[in-house]
Amino acid sequence: MQANLIICDESEGTVDLLREGLAGCEEVTVLRLKPDQLLRVEGLDAFYISVTGAERWGAQPIPHKAQILRTELDDEGKRYPSYVVAGGLFNLEDSSDPSFQLKVIMNTVLEAVDHFNVDNHDAIKKIGFWTQWLGIERMDAREAGEIIKSVYEAHYLFDES
């Protein structure tokens, strides 16, 4: 099963460039939202965040791996999406190039979600991302869209499970 991705940013220009880079990839949607609106997107099953941001749910520092963790109510009693996908940890010798890091993040997220969906009846179908969590502000947004599209299509090209 292919996961649908929702990528959000506050800037109209960034959103437009991401959409250009993602042209033709229907399973990835780019929305112009404020940061606090991402977690309220209808039907969102999970959201991506760095390992350090997900420590409250038990994230462990594992380079080049994403972890799926169950969320709980926040401090005000509101519910997050059911799951958080924690990742984005790199080795010291890894490149700091944002293109490299975006590819690794997207690959590890898709792999973790696919593995999770095989073993759990509560499948993750829609995942939310904030552009800054992906390092997109450090690169050309059109290029970032092209990278996400390339990784997504390569991941699901022959996998129709």
Task: Please give the structural blueprint.
Elements: E1 4-9, H1 12-21, E2 28-32, E3 46-50, E4 67-70, E5 83-87, H2 98-119, E6 126-130, H3 141-156
Parallel strand pairs: 1-2, 1-6, 3-5, 3-6
Antiparallel strand pairs: 4-5
TL;DR of this structure?
This protein is of the alpha/beta class and 161 residues long.
Q: Could you characterize the architecture of this molecule?
A:
The protein is α/β, with parallel strands linked by helices and 161 residues long. The chain has a single domain (4-156), classed as Leucine Aminopeptidase, subunit E, domain 1. The chain has three helices and six strands. It has helices at 12-21, 98-119, 141-156; strands spanning 4-9, 28-32, 46-50, 67-70, 83-87, 126-130. It has a six-stranded mixed beta sheet, with helices on one face. The longest helix is centred in the C-terminal third of the chain and has 22 residues, at 98-119. It starts with a strand and ends in a 5-residue tail after the last helix. The mean pLDDT is 92.
Instruction: Indicate the mean pLDDT.
Output: 92
Distance between the termini: 5 Å
Order of helices and strands: EHEEEEHEH
Overall body shape: globular
State the helicity in percent bands.
25-40%
The secondary-structure class comes to alpha/beta
CATH T-level fold name: Leucine Aminopeptidase, subunit E, domain 1
CATH architecture: 3-Layer(aba) Sandwich
The gyration radius over C-alpha positions equals 15 Å
Q: In oligomeric terms, what are we looking at?
A: single chain
Number of strands: 6
**Strand residue content:** 15-25%
Integer count of domains: 1
